[in-house]
Amino acid sequence: MSPWRRRRAQARMWLSPGMGVKRWLLLFVVCTLIGAVGFLHFTWTGPLHFVATRWILGLNALANPDVMPMYVTGISVMVLSLLGALFAIVMLNRSVLHATGTAPDTAVDVIYSKRTLSRGPRVVAVGGGTGLSNLLSGLKEHSSNLTAIVTVADDGGSSGRLRAALDMIAPGDLTDCYAALSDSPVLARLLLHRFGRGEGLEGHTFGNLLLATLSEEQGGLQGAMQDIHDVLRVRGQVFPATTTPATLVARLSDGREVRGESELARQVGASRIEDVRLEPPDLPALPAVVEAVRSAELIVLGPGSLFTSIIPALLVPEIARAVRESAAPVAYVASLMTEPGESTGLSLKDHVDAISTHLGRAPTWVLMNSTPVPPTVQARYAAEGAQVLTLQGAGRELRGRVRSVPLLQAGDTARHDPRALAQALLGLIARVRTLG
């Protein structure tokens, strides 16, 4: 965004509802005008009458009544004076903000987040991977009352290496969500930076190493959650589904069991996943997570991998119980494509049934993309064994839950558009508020 457009956007934000600015700006203008009238009365009727007369007569002499009436001259002077006063206030605020270490360009974002977004809807999003972080990046423009509950069973890549070395929960999906919700573009970029060289550093992201450091220092991430939110300037909250390291175990249709998320897609083969579980089974959840679910206006599942992102976060007993008992509707954001190995051959009904079986509650709504996936994109995904997820074979009961909305992001990949997805979810919340 160009600097000029950025300034125009910030100017509109200053005047948006709930910022607490317009009332004081109006008071300033009114008081300035009253003060001007009072000053004119003082000078005209008091000891400065001679000076005021000379000034007004001199001002009138500069104006040609045939071209510009004298009252227009007075209005012009008044407007210029007000603009000068406003400019002085702006420069004073900039000086104060600089002195306190706050960048003037970010002040409006901070106030907008604290005042306007703090009154946004209370949304809990459950899942992991790029799908969840994508969703959060769209929702954070409308509310700061966001809570992400992130699966932590990943055992591959950077997360797997840190888990094995430090016996900690997988930090990768947490890092993605912190970056998505961070109010600082610089911090968001740094969190996702992946080291391409360096013995012991190669392959790790800065965010994963930061979480590993805090986990090591605090004896686990549970004691460091507030510090993380403060340091990263997160708009909302990001919590792991559990702070205890866990292993994902899948039971396949051929009777085999596969241990470890990273092994799942490779070992499924021609079989199908029947169900998944976490070991150990009695995993604790943070009290803040349970409280967020209980107070939510909407609980969102996904988008993300069915058996490795969404369902694992729902296998923590306290979270599953809180979701089942919550009065808030549950919206499942259906994947755009099936995933090779993990959900090959599964229909939308199979996805919904798997969630309902593991959670013990069926989704209230299923949010589905209605924009056709371009043939070239379909062909590329088909070469990898993935197909478009459609309503084919869905019964009347499931079709009654489906809400089809244009959600496809333009480009050469099948990915949800963050803004369109956020608008669709806000529409569901508006419907709940209307009916409630």
From TrEMBL:
Keywords: Cytoplasm, Membrane, Transmembrane, Transmembrane helix. Signal peptide: none annotated. It is found in: Cytoplasm. InterPro entries: CofD, CofD-like_dom_sf, Gluconeogen_factor. Its main location: cytoplasm. GO terms for molecular function: LPPG:FO 2-phospho-L-lactate transferase activity. CDD domains: YvcK_like. The chain crosses the membrane at residues 69-92. GO terms for cellular component: cytoplasm. NCBIfam families: CofD_related. Required for morphogenesis under gluconeogenic growth conditions. Belongs to the gluconeogenesis factor family. This is Putative gluconeogenesis factor. It comes from Deinococcus hopiensis KR-140.
